Amino acid sequence: MNGPVAIILAAGQGKRMRSERAKVLHEVRGRPMIRYVVDAARGAGARTIVVVVGYDADSVRAALGDEPDVLFATQAEQLGTGHAVKVCRPLLEGYRGPALVLVGDEPLLRPGPLADLLERQRSEQAACLLGTTVLPDPTGFGRILRDAAGRFLRIVEERDCTPEERALAEVSPSCYVFELPGLWNALDRLDPGNAQGEYYLTDAPALLMAQGEKVAALHLLTADDALGVNTRQHLAQAEAIMQRRINDHWMTEGVTLLDPGSTYIDGRATIGPDTVIHPYTVISGTVRIGSRCRIGPFAHLRDGTVLEDGVEVGAFVEVNRSTLGEGTLARHLAYLGDAVLGKHVNIGATAVTANFDGERKSRTTIGDGARIGAGAVLVAPVTVGERAVVGASAVVLGNHDVAPGQTVVGVPARVVNPRPEPSP
After folding, report:
1. Mean pLDDT, 10 residues at a time, over the chain (424 residues)?
2. Counting beta carbons within 10 angstroms of the beta carbon of residue 45, is it exposed (0 to 12), middle (13 to 18) or buried (19 or more)?
3. 332 among known catalytic residues
4. Closest CA to 217 of 184, 175, 179
5. Are 137 and 168 in contact (CB under 8 A)?
6. How far apart are CA 161 and CA 146, in angstroms?
7. Is 270 helix (H, G, I), strand (E, B) or coil?
């Protein structure tokens, strides 16, 4: 077992989401929120990640199926967070070392504070360290109790708080580092005598302290880190914060966003420097954008799209699963789906690659330097050769390829210069 390890609790349904989908699979900026938590744990140094599944377990496994360092433990009964961690014991039997324990519905957790927790736990040889934050509205979180000297005493879940405890603003957003195997003994001693009749993981730090172990609560997290998604309103908040983070990242990397507040960029997209993105552009999925591109306004780049350097995708242009070669222009009201365009292609206004025949999707290929006129329709599968011209409003039928240098016009398209231009 490679360490450090991370345990991520993801077994709950999230009833307040009013959804049949497991809560951790709801998306933030195009990705299931559980993936952000996995990334944060990995970025902090975790080398083995155990995800605890329960409700809709198969879907959660499928969402993380391509992650080679992720293992799964099943919590068949929802008996509390302490019980959820305990079901990981068979997978981690024999492992000695630090274990991050996180929850899968906090997608805004950053790797930095988690790495700090791991480092502090290692250097201080603590049995448990927990990250805390202070919130203007701590509703829903367990409160941190300290003594007069500021030393950690225990966590009290909100339902079990006295009025004085409920007024405390420092909270535990379920972010821990425990030393294993010491945690297992504390979990065996958990008592479900509380308002929910559950085994609370939040009781484990105090139990370890009672055994003489070193435990500390460190104010390392921001309010954003601690945002747990329990409702659709929380999901919208997480979406807005994540979008700000993504947009700030790309601006730092040399991308111009003319109006970041109206620009939507998926967390999986990559963008080269000196690209300019106009307002109301949506970039969704695994999209790769080169340098010196101009995009929008009101453009939509969908999953699988690649824009090479110097491409322009203008107002109301949608690109889906397509590659646009260097210097290619599609400036107005076009749809390019399942297409491969070469270099310096010009796509006229309202041109369409008709990629779906009702049963299957097919590819359109357009060679270097070709010009596609306004309103043209290319019915896939079809190839338009280099330097070919498709006239305005022409319809090129499937399997009726246009040879290099040819010009075609009409409906259906016919050749008006039957001799292709010689290659230079």
Report:
1. 92 90 94 95 96 96 92 93 96 95 96 96 95 92 93 91 93 95 94 86 94 95 93 95 96 98 95 98 97 98 98 98 98 97 98 94 97 98 98 97 97 83 56
2. middle
3. yes
4. 175
5. no
6. 14
7. strand
Identify the CATH number of the domain in which residue 301 sits: 2.160.10.10
**Do 158 and 270 reside in the same domain of the chain?**
no
d(CA 408, CA 421): 13
Domain C-terminal end among 219, 235, 267: 219
**Two structure tokens written together for 305:** 């799209």
Domain limits at 279? 252-415
- Choosing from 219, 249, 300, 332, which is the catalytic residue? 332
Residue 424 lies in a domain: no
State the Rg of the chain over Cα. 28
Q: Per the structure, how many domains does the chain have? A: 2
Question: Is residue 422 situated within a structural domain?
Answer: no
Instruction: Return d(Cα 135, Cα 171) in angstroms, integer.
Output: 7
- Co-location of 92 and 207 in the same domain: yes
Starting at the earlier edge strand, list the strands of the sheet with 389-390: 256-257, 276-277, 294-295, 312-315, 329-332, 346-347, 371-372, 389-390, 407-409, 414-415
Structure token pair of residue 327: 């210097």
For residue 85, the tally of other CB atoms under 10 A from its CB is 28
With respect to residue 180, please indicate whether it lies within any of the assigned structural domains. yes
Tokens representing residue 76 in the block: 């068949």
Half-sphere exposure of 186 (CA within 13 A, CB side): 25
Residues 175 and 266 in one domain: no
Q: What 3 state SS string does 68-83 have?
A: CCEEEEECCCCCCHHH
- 318 and 258 in a single domain? The answer is yes
Q: Which amino acid is at 26?
A: H
User: What is the chain's percent helix, strand, coil content, to nearest 5?
Assistant: 25, 30, 50
φ, ψ of residue 201 to 5 degrees: the values are -65, -30
Contact criterion met (CB below 8 Å) for 403 and 395: no
Q: What is the amino acid identity at position 90?
A: P
Residues 185 and 100: beta-carbon distance below 8 Å: no
pTM: 0.87
pLDDT at residue 187, rounded to an integer: 95
Are residues 211 and 263 located together in one domain of the fold? no
Q: Residue 277: left (phi > 0), alpha (psi -120 to 50), or beta?
A: beta
Tokens of 160: 């079990």
Residue closest to 351 by CA, chosen among 386, 387, 314: 314
